[in-house]
Amino acid sequence: MKEQLTKAMKLNYLLEVVYMDKSGKLTKRRIKVLKMHGEKIWVWDAGKRAKRTFLIDRVLACQPILRKEREII
Question: Which domain of life is it from (predicted)?
Answer without folding.
Answer: Bacteria
